[in-house]
Amino acid sequence: MSTYRVAQVTAPNGAFALTEREIPDPPPGHVRIAVEACGVCHSDAAFVAGALPGVTFPEVPGHEIAGRVAALGERAAEYGWAVGDRVAVGWFGGSCGHCVPCRSGDFIVCRELKVPGWAYDGGFAEQVIAPVDALARIPDALTAADAGPMACAGVTVFNGLRRSSARSGDLVAVLGLGGLGHLAVQYAVAMGFETAALARGPQKADFAKRLGAHHYLDTTGATPPGEALAALGGARVVLATAGSSEAITAVVPGLAPRGELVVIGADTAPLGISPADLIFKAYVLRGHPSGTAQDVADTMAFSVLHHIRPMTETVPLADVGDAFARMLSGQARFRMVLTTG
What we know:
- With 341 residues, the protein is of the alpha/beta class.
- The protein has ten helices and 15 strands.
- The protein has helices at 44-48, 100-103, 144-162, 181-190, 205-210, 225-231, 245-251, 275-280, 293-305, 320-329, and strands spanning 3-8, 17-22, 30-40, 65-72, 86-89, 127-131, 136-137, 171-175, 194-199, 215-218, 235-240, 255-263, 284-287, 312-316, 335-339.
- Strand 9, helix 5 (205-210) and strand 10 (215-218) form a beta-alpha-beta unit.
- The protein starts with a strand and ends with a strand.
């Protein structure tokens, strides 16, 4: 029997170890993917820590998967897939198809959402089994190392912007210039927004401008970030990619009347936003999840059209522990990507 390698942890916050497993046959409605690359997302830390309900051990994380279809389960071909197809699988790893959100076409908030690394083994592996509704076709112009991060980081910011209230010419602010933010700035500019990038420290100004930002605001500067943003006229939308409730709260005064705060940076601390601000300034506050397989396909197509790529550091699967530690430290520039070689 042929085998493949996975990188797993056997206990909460345990060390990664490579182990071999027998290659399984995909069940009906699923495919087996030969993984070529998998991004390391900060939310993988919640799986490794066992911090989410239903996470079991041994745990194989990874939900920024890119590879090729290696085997088809029964009926998979009926959905248009064939062995050899290049596919990506992100946070959206499949849906139940029968809950009210699914029956309403809102699959990303499926009540039984299947997230790789949570509902089934993720992409820190050489092979992964995924349902066909999770598959997004990778354009020829994208490498696997580019496509993987777009299946979570990319689609999250792309969808967050295109589903916002902003229109071309509006001032849009992106808070944070990390794995999510560096893509968000590029997408915002390509969508025709006047784009302001906000991050910590003056040293990031040149980088923000290279990404295309029209303005850079140092959130550690003498002028509070909300005040500095308001001085530009106020943002129609703030896309908060930074995982800090304190930093997110600080930019709220920079919203224009009826401005929209879109939160995609996760933090367990509450936001310090008063109901009075929401009422009298008519602010809109909403969270934004990732995106379906079709959204991932849209993200990749838009990225090809506008020459947008994630900035990545690739490392072999065997070095998963080092890559994970680098991600946790905030030193990654800007997405760690595991490759199977």
